[in-house]
Amino acid sequence: MWEFIRLSIYMLVCLMWCGFAFILVGCDDSTSSSSEVAQTASSEFLSKHWPVVLPPQGEPPVNFTAQETSLDPQSCGECHADQFKQWQTSLHSHTMGPGIQWQLQLMSQEAGNKCLRCHAPLAEQKALVALKHNWPNAPDKAIPDWIPPNLADAGLSCAACHVRRHQVFGPPPKQTIPDGQSDNWPHGGFTASQAFQDSRFCATCHQHNEKENPPRVNGKLQEDTWNQWQQSPQAKQGIHCQSCHMPDRQHLWRGIHDADMTRQALDIQMQLKRTGENVVNVEVVLHNLGAGHHFPTYMVPKVELVFNLRNRDSGKKQVFHRYVIGWQVNVALTDEQFDTRIPAGETRYLQVPLTLHESDVNWDVELEVEVIPREHYERTFQQSLKYADTLSATTLATLRKAIKEAQATHYRLLQLQEPVPRWNIAN
After folding, report:
1. Do the Cβ atoms of 326 and 348 come closer than 8 Å?
2. What residues make up the domain containing 105?
3. Is position 228 within any domain?
């Protein structure tokens, strides 16, 4: 049982979305300044903005309205309607879904807070979770009006990135604001920082810190996206995470869960070549041309290539080969089974021999590319069902919901087809 809980703790740490196994594609030129002064300023800002534990907001200024003091994302959406609608469709708004909720029911406060650091980082969110699970050190005072009771369920909310001690922070305005024009803005205006356009802003959750002795498998960091980006062509071109995951500052954060993003990230080509009288080589070229990190970046997603021999007349088909792109690790997180991820800008070549027979005249070779965004979670959650008799009815129901939710993310990325040449028939 304790091993089971240990695995659960890990799952929360890496449940980003995830994830997000993020994909850098479709980029604009909104990059942070490359000057040393700007880099230093961003570093100083980020060290204060993203401490290991975010402090409570504290009492709001007396001159703030209820809307200004509220940490409710819906309150932000009253003025920032487009950003709120976009955020609602993003994985950031679902970081406190069933996949983490069932595990929190089994955790201590210390273990849970390690996960909440990224899944619900506000101190106020952690307090609400502590109350829900009767953890020690839960607040014994009434919840202030400016903290909505469901704030923890909002996941990575607006305030997590933009509000500290009731002061608002964000990227520099797109257009110059005339002097005095922002004096009467809500919240007393906002503080601008280039750090919001710097990949290091995202590294807080999408990169394990070497100084904290982070978990590894086969020597590889379990969260290593920012390091991967640093070695990418995109980094050399000044293309940051925000350039692709927040194009034109949209709060979308699309990644491998999104088919359009994945199609732009991975280019796949297939052709057939004769290598013998009745033997054909199926040659596939896989090029990570769009993702500014490994494709995929985490151990969680998998992309499966299914090779079929398909009859043109009947539609009947049979699988003759499978290949998986991803980092496969056992559920105990002790052994790496394979790592076929494709680094940014690199290419992989597959050659699959196919022996044909006289009956294989009206057949095609068909390649189906299936994306399983939460494959590692599915495997781990299914394994956890073995402990069903130790779980409460509520926990078990949430676990089953998490499995169903993960399975619903599967999709077919594309399908390629090439006819089997007639010259392969024996004379």
Report:
1. no
2. 33-197
3. no
